[in-house]
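From the methods appendix. Each design record in this collection lists the tokenized structure first, followed by the designed amino acid sequence. Records were kept in a plain field format so they could be parsed without special tools. The example shown here is representative of the layout used throughout.

RECORD:
FOLD TOKENS (470 positions):
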């Protein structure tokens, strides 16, 4: 017999709208599962059962109102990097513990859509690492193999969805932090185009790397969440073009896709490293699947220059150094954060300005180089999820950072270009460990990516792949 968490997020929303189940019943189901499983997978930084039940009760009272989201009443939590008014925020760090007075714009959009928050999902310190092993919460583990990482920095969000502790979740991605955990946890993860989802009310950080987007079990669920999030905030410096009247990302997930011209490469971009044989096996199998569906798949050279990593490293450390810490806060930071901060403090304003200018030039040249293709295809990661603690290196943070880059050499360049990208769970090892494949679209063309993703999902379904704890 199907359990409530077997239903997709959209199926749950439909069941609530038809009054077959209540949002409160669904919320209690997820709260009970989190009681049992959260300590095992490290999904939540903070759990909020009282607030969740209040939200669910309001969602039930609103049933039948015109214009509700198809996800109204569904459990879809935010990340602990998001401000949720009146609720504790730690930013994944022992150095922070505060209560925001206002919501982030993304949280406002989620509330207005009737999402229920059973907590805030786990994240590493300040969202910086590609693994989620904070000092203030258990490590986030992929439910498919508990000895291995769920990735980062949205590792808790991915662990929650893959373990059936939430229907879907919203994460953030400054260098791959949605796509990395999506790959580790067998999920769909969308990094939208720059300007598609507002980071308001905060201003954009230097380099404009960060994007917020969905982690879900299906393409349609992820698309429906993206529809909710894609509303501008007043004063946004850059806004993605609005979709045509009457269209939506959800309709793109349910529509047809034309034959596409797809450029592919599996050569690491930002560092020289070995791509795991299992990853390459999935890459080749996915290429064959694309061709069987009628798409033209063409090998291409890496569309980025060799100096892209040095500039990204300068920008990443400068962003860390721009954070203001009190002395007592600084003493509580993890070694990696301290190393990035001190490295960033040594960078001059002139050097940073040159880096930003160079990255903008690289972005434009790379986008132009890729423009003859509808979609670019790469592996999401160079490795299968490593063991907890395998990357983190408190004694040698420089080696830690290098290991992260060797794990994730395909993701961060597309934060620099601002292009939309999606990770899909199209390959699984013989042991049942998920391996994601990354697809990158033209700027602001999430519609093509989502339509292609839905076609691939139909051709090679993954919805029934569950961890043993399911």
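DESIGN:
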């Amino acid at each position: 017999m199907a359990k409530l968490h077997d239903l997709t997020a959209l199926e749950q929303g439909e069941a609530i709208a038809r009054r077959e189940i209540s949002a409160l019943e669904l919320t209690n189901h997820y709260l009970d599962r989190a009681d049992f499983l959260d300590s095992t997978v490290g999904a939540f930084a903070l759990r909020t059962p009282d607030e969740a039940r209040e939200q669910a009760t309001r969602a039930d009272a609103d049933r039948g109102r015109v214009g509700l989201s198809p996800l109204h009443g569904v459990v879809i939590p935010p990340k602990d990097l998001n401000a949720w008014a009146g609720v504790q925020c730690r930013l994944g760090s022992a150095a922070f513990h505060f209560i925001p007075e206002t919501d982030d714009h993304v949280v406002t959009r989620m509330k207005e859509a009737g999402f229920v928050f059973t907590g805030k999902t786990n994240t590493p310190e300040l969202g910086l690492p590609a693994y989620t092993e904070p000092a203030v919460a258990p490590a986030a583990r992929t439910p498919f193999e508990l000895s291995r990482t769920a990735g980062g920095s949205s590792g808790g969000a991915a662990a929650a969805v893959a373990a059936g502790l939430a229907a879907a979740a919203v994460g953030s991605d400054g260098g791959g932090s949605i796509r990395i955990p999506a790959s580790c946890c067998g999920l769909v993860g969308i990094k939208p185009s720059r300007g598609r989802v507002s980071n308001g009310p905060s201003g954009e950080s230097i380099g404009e790397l960060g994007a917020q987007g969905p982690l879900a079990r299906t393409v349609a669920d992820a698309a429906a969440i993206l529809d909710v999030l894609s509303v501008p905030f007043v004063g946004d410096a850059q806004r993605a073009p609005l979709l045509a009247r009457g269209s939506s990302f959800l309709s793109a997930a349910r529509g047809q896709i034309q034959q596409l011209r797809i450029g592919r490469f599996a050569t690491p971009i930002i560092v020289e490293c070995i791509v795991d044989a299992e990853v390459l096996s999935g890459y080749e199998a996915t290429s064959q699947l694309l061709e069987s569906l009628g798409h033209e798949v063409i090998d291409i050279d890496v569309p980025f220059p060799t100096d892209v990593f040095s500039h990204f490293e300068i920008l990443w450390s400068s962003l860390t150094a721009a954070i203001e810490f009190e002395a007592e806060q600084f003493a509580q930071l993890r070694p990696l954060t301290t190393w990035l901060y001190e490295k960033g403090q040594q960078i001059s304003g002139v050097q940073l300005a040159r880096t930003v200018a160079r990255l903008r030039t690289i972005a434009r040249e790379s986008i132009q180089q890729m423009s003859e293709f509808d979609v670019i295809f790469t592996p999401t990661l160079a490795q299968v999820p490593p063991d907890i603690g395998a990357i983190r290196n408190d004694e040698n943070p420089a080696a830690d950072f290098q290991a992260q880059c060797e794990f994730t050499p395909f993701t961060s360049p597309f934060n620099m270009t601002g292009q939309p990208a999606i990770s899909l769970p199209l390959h699984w090892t013989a042991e049942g460990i998920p391996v994601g494949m990354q697809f990158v679209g033209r700027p602001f063309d999430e519609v093509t990516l989502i339509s292609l993703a839905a076609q691939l999902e139909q051709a090679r379904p993954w919805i029934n792949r569950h961890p043993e704890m399911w």
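APPENDIX NOTE: Strands lie at 44-47, 119-121, 168-173, 188-191, 211-216, 261-264, 296-299, 375-379, 421-428, 434-441.
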